[in-house]
Amino acid sequence: MSCPRLAARALILQDNRLLLVNAYPDGAGDLWCAPGGGVERGSSLPENLAREVYEETGLTIVVGAPCLINEFHDPDGTFHQIDLYFKCTITSGTLSDTWRDPENVVSQRRFFTRKELTTIHVKPDSLPDAAWGESLLYDPLEPLIKPT
């Protein structure tokens, strides 16, 4: 059995809207999530997160305080990931439809109001409370969502 994968994710509010990405190549799935990704050995969580956000969105950020710990897993497999979410602020860059993720995973990126989050498929369930809240949340072991 392998250890859980560790990832860092950014909660970025701008004009009271939350930045989310669709992390399915060519928009193959309808799930939206916070930008970020796997942690590389020898690099801090904020360094990893700033790199991932830039790769996925073209934005440069400052990483702030942690606000959510979320676990998800594949109940039928071996995948288990722990996501650490941080409140972040954009320091430079703007979203562009022409930006390309070097790994070709993120196909779309956009800002959503809290009300709009109720009309899309977004994970984890606690994401709105973490983004607009003030306390550190823990969201235990959600099942992995597969593309629809």
Short description:
16% of the residues lie in helices and 43% in strands. The chain has 148 residues and is of the alpha/beta class. It has a single domain, classed as Alpha-Beta Complex (Nucleoside Triphosphate Pyrophosphohydrolase).
Question: What this model shows, in words?
Answer:
There is one protein chain. This protein has helices at 45-57, 114-117, 127-132, and strands at 5-14, 17-22, 31-33, 36-38, 60-73, 80-92, 108-112, 121-122, 137-143. By secondary structure, it is α/β, with parallel strands linked by helices. It has one domain (5-143): Nucleoside Triphosphate Pyrophosphohydrolase (Alpha-Beta Complex). Strands 1, 2, 3, 4, 5, 6, 7, 8 and 9 form a nine-stranded mixed beta sheet that branches. The mean pLDDT is 91.
How do the helices and strands line up, and which of them pair or pack?
Blueprint lengths: L4 E10 L2 E6 L8 E3 L2 E3 L6 H13 L2 E14 L6 E13 L15 E5 L1 H4 L3 E2 L4 H6 L4 E7 L5
Number of helices: 3
Can you count the beta strands? 9
Structural class: alpha/beta
Largest β-sheet summary: 9 strands, mixed
CATH architecture: Alpha-Beta Complex
- Poorly predicted regions: none
Q: Output the radius of gyration.
A: 14 Å
- In whole angstroms, the N-to-C terminal distance is 28 Å
The ordered string of helix (H) and strand (E) elements is EEEEHEEEHEHE
As for the CATH topology, it is Nucleoside Triphosphate Pyrophosphohydrolase
Overall body shape: globular
Structurally, the number of domains stands at: 1
Task: Assign the CATH superfamily.
Answer: Nucleoside Triphosphate Pyrophosphohydrolase
Strand proportion: 35-45%
